[in-house]
Amino acid sequence: MVESLALGLVYVGALMMVAAAVFANVVFFRYPVKRRLSTHDPVSRRETDMTFAISLLQCAAVTFGGACVLVLGLVVGSGAAAWTLLIPFVPLAVVAVSVVYLKRLSL
Q1: Chain CA centroid to CA 91, Å
Q2: Is 5 helix (H, G, I), strand (E, B) or coil?
Q3: Residues 6 or more apart from 67 whose CB is under 8 A from it?
Q4: Engineered SS bond to 63: which of 1, 15, 20, 56, CB 3.0-4.6 Å?
Q5: Is residue 11 over pLDDT 80?
Q6: How far apart are CA 26 and CA 64, in angstroms?
Q7: DSSP states of 9-57 as a string?
Q8: How far lies 38's CA from each of 9, 30, 45, 103, in Å?
Q9: Contact, 52 vs 26, CB < 8 A?
Q10: Which residues are CB-neighbours of 51 under 8 A, at least 6 positions away?
Q11: How far apart are CA 74 and CA 52, in angstroms?
């Protein structure tokens, strides 16, 4: 039972990381089109750039969240040390604080 739970956590974490990579690719392909449409107005250009930065940070947050879930599955299933959860959690906290800061800055 514990092994299947751990394997499920590893799969969910890996799928979250793949979904974040796909979302990042969508953001990268969508950004030049939006930037080209907002070339005349500096305010809309700034908003587009800020939205781009926030979207990429959100992709990073989902990636690190998936890594946290994946490492949790490894801790539960294969007996890895519990402190290894800090490895993906610290960058997740930094990215989350950055997203909140940039959202507040863009208001």
Answers
A1: 10
A2: helix
A3: 13, 17, 87, 88, 92
A4: 20
A5: yes
A6: 18
A7: HHHHHHHHHHHHHHHHHHHHHHHHHHHHHTSS-HHHHHHHHHHHHHHHH
A8: 42, 13, 5, 20
A9: no
A10: 34, 106
A11: 33
- Looking at residue 83, what DSSP letter applies? G
Largest pairwise CA distance in the chain: 60
pLDDT of the residue at 38: 72
Q: Please tell me the distance from the alpha carbon of residue 68 to that of residue 44, in angstroms, as a whole number.
A: 36
pTM: 0.88
Residue 54's identity, in one-letter code, is I
Angstrom CA distances, 52 to 17, 33, 93, 99, stand at 19, 12, 20, 11
Of the CA atoms within 13 Å of residue 72, those in its CB half-sphere come to 14
Checking if the pLDDT of 6 tops 90, the result is: yes
Check residue 36 and give its pLDDT. Answer: 80
